[in-house]
Every structure is written in C-alpha cells, then in structure tokens.
Amino acid sequence: MNNPTPTNDSWWRRAAIYQVYIRSFADGDGDGTGDIAGLRSRLHYLAHLGIDAIWINPWYPSPLADGGYDVSDYRNIHPAYGTLDEAERLITEAHDLGLRVILDIVPNHTSDQHAWFQEALAAPPGSPERARYIFRDGKGEDGSLPPNDWHAAFGGRTWTRTDDGQWYLHLFAPEQPDLNWDNGEVRAEFESILRFWFDLGVDGFRIDVAHGMVKDPALPDLGLTEFSVLTGEGQQDHPHWDRDGVHDIFRSWRAIADSYPTPRVFVAEAHVRPGRMPHYLRPDELHTAFNFDFLKCPLDAGKLREVIDRSITTLATVGAPATWVLSNHDETRHVTRYGRTDTGVQALFRDKPIPTDLALGTRRARAAALLMFALPGSAYIYQGEELGLYEVEDIPESALQDPTWERSGHTVRGRDGCRVPLPWTGDTPPFGFSTSPTVTPWLPQPPDWKTYTAEANQADPTSMLQLYRSALRLRRTTPGLAGEDFHWLDTPPGTLLFERGDGILCAVNLSDQPIPLPDTTTTLLTSGPLTKDGQLPPDTTALLHRD
Questions:
Q1: Gap between the Cα atoms of 195 and 175, Å rounded
Q2: What pLDDT is attached to residue 350?
Q3: Inter-helix orientation angle 358-374/464-477, to 10°
Q4: Is residue 251 classed as helix, strand or coil in its secondary structure?
Q5: Could you give the CA distance from residue 257 to residue 89 in angstroms, rounded to a whole number?
Q6: How confident is the model at residue 226 (pLDDT cuts 50, 70, 90)?
Q7: How many CA atoms, within 13 angstroms, populate the side-chain half-sphere of residue 81?
Q8: What's the CA gap between 32 and 138, in Å, rounded?
Q9: pTM for this predicted structure
Q10: Angle at the Cα of 104 (from 199 to 97), degrees rounded to 5?
Q11: What does each C-alpha distance from 186 to 77, 182, 211, 494 come to in angstroms?
C-alpha cells in the first residue's frame, strides 16, 4: 500500500519533528509498554501541538538488548508494539492529519538474533554467511586474544569470540554484531529495506550511527583509552568512525529516495567534526543531520552564538539547512542539564547524578526552546520536553534496562532516566500512559509527575505545553520565520539578538540582569513574564516584530 504523502518536497528544510520513543510514548493494550495503538490514540495531540512530522525510534522485532537498536527483522513490527497492518494504518492516519512519518534505520549492526547472524554462527570461517559481518581470527598462538584493541561504546572490548574460535566485531553491545558494508549483499539488502518502507508510505529515515558503517579493512589498533575512542574526535583517518566509504552508500540511498514521486528524506546521526558534516549533506547524499554541537552546548551566549554561526555557515556551503535539538533518547533531559552549574552535556555514561535546580532548569529550558524555534532550519522535539519533564535519576537499580548498566558491572546507570514513560492524565502512576490503570510501566514514573501530565499542562495557560504550542504556531504562520534569512544584531555581553525575515527579532537574555527590549517593537511571545517595567529578565527569550 502506497499511502499518499502531504505535499511540499522541501518541507524538511524548516520542519518541527517530534521524536517518539515508542516504548515510552503511550500503551494502547494495557501491558505497560508503549505501542502503535497508543501512538495512534495520541496523533491528534501531536497534530494540535503544531509539529510537521514524527520520528519513531525502532519498532522492529528485537530482543531489546539496546532498546530496539538491535534489530532481528527490518521488515516487520515488534509484537509488543503491534502489527505491520497497524503500522500502515498509523502512516495513513498521520498523513490524514498532515503529519509525515520518519522511521529509524539501524544499518551499522543487526541483532545477534537476526537470521543472517544465526546463519553466520552456523557456517564455517570464510563462508559467504560470515562475509556479511566482520569475523576475524584472534591474535596469539591460539587465537585467544582479540583481533585489535578497540573499545565498545557500552564498555568492554568490541570483539566477542565464537565457539569455533573466531571473533566478531561489535562497536556497541555483543548482541549487536557489525555488518560488513564492503559486502554487496549487505548493500542490496538495505536498499531493499528502504524501498519496502517507502512503498508503505514512510516519508524518510533517521540513520543510526551513519558515521560508523564503514571500517578500515586492516582493522588497526587504536592505542586509545576506553572512552576516548567513542567519537574519534581529534583523530584523522579513524579506522571505524567517519570514513569516506560511507558516502558511496548514501549516494545510492539518495537516488532511491529521489526516485519516488514525492521524494523521501534522510537525517543522519553522525558524530563527526563540524568541518566534516557537509560531506554527509552534499546535494546527492543526505538531506539533514542532527546538530549535536547545539545539543551539547552550555547555555552561554557566546558559546551558543559560535555554535549557531558555525552550524549555519558550514552547512550553507553545500546548501543544507541547520537542525536544532535540545534533548533526545541518549542524553540527559535539558531541564535537568540547565539547572546545573555546568549546563553543557556531561559524559554520556557518567556514574552519579549531578545536583540540579529544577526551577532554574525549567526557566532556562523555556528560553532555549523559544530560541530554537526562532532559528532557521528544522527543529527536533524529544517526547515529553513539551511537558517540561526532567531526567529521572533515582530509578531503582533493579529496574534499570540500559545495557550500559550490565556492561559496566553495575557502576554506570546509563540512559534510562530520559526514557521513562510519559504522563498523560491523573494523579498517580501510570498517569494515563496505559489503558490499564493498575499496570506497572516498563520503567517506573516519579509520583510528582502528576503536575507534569499533559492534562495538567493543558489546564495551565503558562505551562510548557502552552509555550510550545504558541511557539510552533508562530513558527508555522509567521512569514518572517519561513525562510532562511538570519543575521546578528549588536547586543550586550551575555545576551543574543538576531533578526529573521520581515522584521522578526529574537532576544535572549542569559546574563544575570534584566535588559531592555529593542525600541519600536511589538512582543509576539516570551518564554516567561517580563519585568514590571517591561524589560527581559535573566534566562528569558522574547520573539518580537519591528513596528
């Protein structure tokens, strides 16, 4: 079934895209796990929010060793989430509401339960089945040492030994064996997978680990410590991050996307040096990429200006728009980050909470959101940030699910704190997350989330939800925010002021004192109340129009 897609081929250049971590969004069958039925039941909520598209984290069959990023079948739906028929209905219903649908694709690795990997384990060394993955003999007289010294993202080595003595590569968990992208069968399979979902009406894909798919066939030692190797930052010609061979793959994928009457789109998850990002976004490759520099940037006016400038100007060299994001399923929620002394992203796998002032973090999060929505390009919203949710840092150890917890020997808690199921209604867990009022969600919700539910936000005209709706409405309906016009205006230290098209201004005060708003302007929206004399308080953003 080819579901019709909303028109406007360049929609992705300025879209507001809502990330759905499906396991935690809404539970439609009462088992404590989010699913397609729950997502379908909340589509009108998302349409009313004012977004343009939803991006759904992996919903494929998976043992869930890494939250679904260990896929065992790329052409079906995990039974806990629903059926392929339900997925098609979701796509149709989203399109009927004017929402596009972007899926996650995980091409760097499969699940160890994928049919291909099971065939590889059953086949002898040197077989075509093993050639789809990266198997190697070990070092040492008996081959008992790993083929090289690489470290895995979730801790430990990147190699696991099989029963016949060979080793297989996994940049992440042992349950996620890396594919061999020098193998023609692998390339053909993923091109077929893309067409399968595009034919069902899916509008695009977010590409997981887009920078890690191709490896140096020599697999040389790195000689680096465990965590210095995770992104390859500062190292030229890294053997498994950001290798030039990925670009041939993405050119073939772009040709497939462009072959549809309504072209499909791609967004890359690529942790690369800023000067390398344009290589991924050339006109014959991918459309956009996540802006991790912006996500990780401290809430400091000078540093933000630097990141915004670099993002826009660097990508403009290849005609690509910038993207903006404050939170996602892999990072601490920004309400919590912004309430800390250091507002930047800390080490992903830190082992203990850092004190935070949630009132301050919330005020700053509101200011950052309005700033993000005023910038040219596309913006990503992680589910629950529109409700003002904070990171849950006290999940009982017995409930932790992130593979980092096990791989670290129960010393690093991982990412579960940003993946807690959403609160929708009511005063007690599961807060309307499930159709069963007595079910225990797959991760526990804090009792005080009763004041953060969508229902509570809806009833409060000053809530985070109302701010997001107002900001997104202005973003969609204000002509001056539609294009890519952007330039800075002079402003005091600790503040930002820029102009978009048709006299639209955005003022951001990150100093410790109120500042006057520009003369002869009308206030369209502020992230918080102005002072009694009409000035912009600290940690507040205003969207303005020249009179």
A1: 26
A2: 52
A3: 10
A4: helix
A5: 22
A6: very low
A7: 27
A8: 43
A9: 0.95
A10: 60
A11: 21, 8, 17, 51
| Cα–Cα dist 9/429, whole Å | 42
Preceding amide of 430 cis, omega within 30? yes
Tokens of 273: 């040096």
Tell me the C-alpha distance between 242 and 478, whole Å: 38
Beta-carbon contacts of 448 under 8 Å, excluding residues fewer than 6 positions away, are none
Please name which of 187, 209, 189 lies closest in space to residue 114, comparing C-alpha atoms: 189
Sheet containing 135-136: give its strands across. Answer: 135-136, 167-169, 159-161
Single-letter code of the amino acid located at 439: V
Residue appearing with tokens 């006290």: 394
The two structure tokens encoding residue 229 = 């190797």
Give the pLDDT of residue 150.
95
Structure tokens at 483: 């294009």
User: What is the tally of helices (H) and strands (E) in the chain?
Assistant: 15, 16
Tokens 């002898």: give the residue: 124
431: phi > 0 → left, psi -120 to 50 → alpha, else beta; which? Answer: left
Three-class HEC string of 435-503: CCCCCCCCCCCCHHHHHCCHHHHHHCCCCHHHHHHHHHHHHHHCHHHCCCCCEECCCCCCEEEEECHHH
**Token pair 């004017």 in the structure block, residue:** 98
Any idea which residue has 């935690």 for tokens? 24
CA–CA gap between residue 105 and residue 107 (Å, rounded):
6
Report the DSSP pairing between strands 204-207 and 487-488: unpaired
- Mean pLDDT (the chain, rounded): 94
Strands 16-20 and 265-268: unpaired
- Total Cβ atoms within 10 A of residue 530: 15
Q: What is the largest CA-CA distance in the chain?
A: 79
Q: Alpha-carbon distance 123 to 245, whole Å? A: 28
SS3 423: coil
End-to-end CA distance of the chain: 51
> Can you tell me the distance from the alpha carbon of 13 to that of 281, in angstroms, rounded to the nearest whole number?
12
Strands 521-526 and 540-546: antiparallel
What is residue 2's predicted lDDT score, i.e. its pLDDT?
Answer: 45
Question: CA torsion sign, 259 to 262 to 263 to 265?
Answer: negative
d(CA 405, CA 413): 5
Give the closest residue to 182 by CA, choosing from 134, 222, 146, 148. Answer: 134
Give CA torsion, residues 48, 52, 56, 57, to 10 deg: -110
Using 50, 70 and 90 to split pLDDT, how confident is the model at 352?
Answer: low
Cα three-residue angle 152-154-156, rounded to 5 degrees = 50
Q: State both tokens at 417.
A: 């704190």
